[in-house]
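Researcher: Next entry in the queue.
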Amino acid sequence: MTVAGHLTYALALGVAAAVPGPGVVALVARALGSGFRAAMAFMVGLILGDLAFLAAATFGLALIAETLGTVFTVVRVCAGLYLAYLAVRLWRSAGSAEGIETGAADSPRASFVAGLTVTLANPKTIVFYLAVLPTLVDLAGVSGGDFVRLVSVTTLVLVTVMTPYAALAARARDSLKRPAFRIRLNRSAAAIMAGAACWTILRRA
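Model: Structure for this entry, 205 residues:
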């Protein structure tokens, strides 16, 4: 791949990632409800899901992915149910000041799994890597070195695009110290997460 090819891919990916979708919405909700650390673990899961689709497209697994529609449906429903569970936890933790500070925070592992399932169930991600990517990159001519560079570019672009979302949401969360504001904040985050859950389950991949 040429430098121009990598730049074209990076630009297209950056634009696609910057447009708020279920991944970005869920990331913001996680940062609002659980803080920056949990959001970073969530982001790692999101990125790993992207890399899985990148590998699938690069190594010619697009046809297999298309034939596994039922599997993607199951993953999407499970992701939506998990997001709904997180929304319920956030809403319930907003009922007390102590819960606001500690109850909503999940372990990094739980945040990572949530991010991974959201990406694997996101139709926008599936379409980009299995349909749009082949129009940007000559996958037949991708070497091992090219794939490593694609992984590096993908990771760098996604971190660059998504970290500000998480940082701004976490900063807004940390700046509101009054319990009443915290309650509204957690319930708003719960509502956002519930909306992402409904979108994930009801949207057809």
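Model: The longest helix spans residues 144-175.
Researcher: Noted, moving on.
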